[in-house]
Each structure stands twice: as structure tokens, then as C-alpha cells.
Amino acid sequence: MLEGQSIAILVPAYNEAPRIGQVLQVISSIPFVDEVVVIDDGSRDGTAQVARKFPVEIIQLPFNSGKAAALTEAIWAKNTSDLYLCLDADLIRLKEEHLLALIEPLIHDAETVMSIGIFKAGRSSSDFAQKLCPILNGQRALRGDWIRSLPDFSWVRFGVEVFLTRFARDFKAKIAMVPLWGITHYHKEEKYGPVLGFYHRLKMYVEVARAYLLYENEMKGTVRVVEEKREEEKIYARV
């Protein structure tokens, strides 16, 4: 709890067993955080087992559904939080000060609905990528009532950052860009090797492009916020 705001950290993770521990070590002991939720997105490498070593809640999805679906699941499960902090599971040199930097724009300005972290002085390759396309950064703070009012976005998979940023801009919502000094993350080639890493990177770019290209078409369809979608599922389950 920070200045009367309940805060939940959401960490979507897919096959991050070697890396997620160093992230959870930091965030599980931060006093102003009310809940930490790890969403194990169908991992096959023991990600959930590593997460169980820390005082966090774990949501396990039966198969890999993508980052957007994992976040949607967690937002529904924690649907009363004032603020959400979304963090990647593969961050390097994460500190409490980075979380404060993300939250502060929403704490001090009621009109700001989202902050986007930008890596600074972490490693040159990551910093350069941030300069080219800063909206792809997954480190974000989200105002709870705003994110829960959005159309269901579970379909965008790795394009979730593109979707959230474009939706906010389309509807004139206020966004803050926040420098995160000294932080970086593992590259896909470091996780999977050069060949498989390139494949995963290409797959991510395809999903990002898909989210961008299909955005207009999806917005023309029936709009269902997360709560409405879940209520429909409950009704059908009772029939």
C-alpha cells in the first residue's frame, strides 16, 4: 500500500526458471507492494517450482497462451487492485527504486493511466532497442479501473504493449514515459541460443505486427471488457 493505493505486481513467465528467482527476490520483499502474482504461462522448465520458493501467488495456465492472456488472467484474479505493476521475469539489476519510478506518475497525477519504463544505461544493445521502439517495453504501471475497463485483449499475445499504448493514445488517455536507470534484461539469444533465440525473436515481432494490423478490426467487433467476458463464461458454465 502506497499513499492509500493497493498495488499488485504481475509477472507473466514462460520457461523462465533460471532467471525469475532474481526478480522475485527483489519484489517479494518490497513493503509498499500488497500482492505479487506470477502467471506461469504453460512453462515446461520448472518456473512455478522456482516461484514457490518465494511468498508470491502463482497462477498456472495449462498451456502457453501468450503474455496478454496471462496478464488478463491475473487482472481478473486481482480485480480490486488500485494499481498494477507489470514486470518481465528476466530482468537484470531490478531494484525497488525502479518500481517507485513506475508508480509515482500514477500516484501524483490522477489523470495518468499508464507509465512505460525505458531502459537507460543498462546495456547498449537494449538501450538502442528502447530508442527505436520504446512502447515495446513490458515494465509498466497501470491504473486498475482503467485497465479493467478495456476490451478483452487476450488475443494479442506478445503484442500487448502495442495494444495498450495504441488504445490509450486513441482515447486520449495520459501516459508517462519513465527512465529506468541501470536495468536491462536477457536477450532471447542468451536464453535459447542463437538459432532458437532468433526464432523466438522473429515470432515475437510477428505477434507485435499482428496486434498492430488487427487492432482496428478487433475494435470494430463486439467490445467485451474483462469482467463481462468472465461473467459470460460463468453463466455458460452454470447452464
What does the model show?
- A seven-stranded mixed β-sheet has the order 3-2-1-4-7-6-8, with helices on both faces. It has a two-stranded antiparallel sheet with strand order 5-9.
- Helix 7 runs parallel beside helix 9.
- The model is unreliable at 235-239 (pLDDT under 50).
- By secondary structure, the protein is an alpha/beta fold.
- The longest helix has 27 residues, at 194-220.
- The radius of gyration is 17 Å and the shape is globular.
- The chain starts with 6 loop residues before the first strand and ends with a helix.
- It has helices spanning 17-27, 47-51, 67-77, 96-108, 124-132, 144-147, 160-170, 188-192, 194-220, 226-238, and strands at residues 7-13, 35-41, 57-61, 83-86, 91-92, 112-120, 140-143, 174-181, 184-185.
Summarize the structure.
With 239 residues, the protein is an alpha/beta fold. The chain contains ten helices and nine strands.
List the helices and strands and how they pair.
Blueprint: E1 7-13, H1 17-27, E2 35-41, H2 47-51, E3 57-61, H3 67-77, E4 83-86, E5 91-92, H4 96-108, E6 112-120, H5 124-132, E7 140-143, H6 144-147, H7 160-170, E8 174-181, E9 184-185, H8 188-192, H9 194-220, H10 226-238
Parallel strand pairs: 1-2, 1-4, 2-3, 6-8
Antiparallel strand pairs: 4-7, 5-9, 6-7
Helix pairs in contact: 7-9
